[in-house]
Amino acid sequence: MQFDPKTLKFNDAGLIPAIAQDAENGDVLMMAWMNEEAVQRTLDTGRVTYWSRSRQSFWIKGESSGHVQELVDFRVDCDRDCLLVIVNQTGPACHTNRRSCFYSAVRDGEEVELMKPMV
Amino acid sequence: MQFDPKTLKFNDAGLIPAIAQDAENGDVLMMAWMNEEAVQRTLDTGRVTYWSRSRQSFWIKGESSGHVQELVDFRVDCDRDCLLVIVNQTGPACHTNRRSCFYSAVRDGEEVELMKPMV
Question: Of chain B's two ends, which shows fewer C-beta atoms within 10 Å, N or C?
Fold first, then answer.
């Protein structure tokens, strides 16, 4: 069956959450948002492209930082309202320069830092 | 630093997305939503608890199906607007009886099914 981005369920703002997972080790790297065209651009170019809600513009991941995400596999969930992109991540995925955005854990009620910024 | 769910960034509906990842093999299982109390209940009970937007009620994952998620680790992202719960998943995570909700992939423009329902 041919995939049509129009069959995805976008929220009221026309966006769908996209989870990025490291193809190498399965780490969850980040979550950001795509609109219909960002989905299409990601599939067409193999370069993961989000929609920046703060800048209200396309955000080709790594375009300015070099920390690009090369698409390895593109997954759609059962409800068609969430995406999972498996990626080859160059450098850190997080704007704090950490490999993953999920570097804080809650353990025994305390927040602990699991990762330091990459150098 | 003590963790306070009030420091998370909830959307206009008072919800935050939570990604569930399999503690055993790193597979991304599903994405659902939590409100502040669901976060607290998840941490207090060790049983992952979402907020069901369709039913407008707490959703203790697996409460009716037995397909529970035992919390292994609770992560917060850099912007504090997305959660990652690492879980021991009993049985399928997906309501279609598949292990993961992300069982469809888009490859060469075609949608393909990667997983069959568990028996």
Answer: C
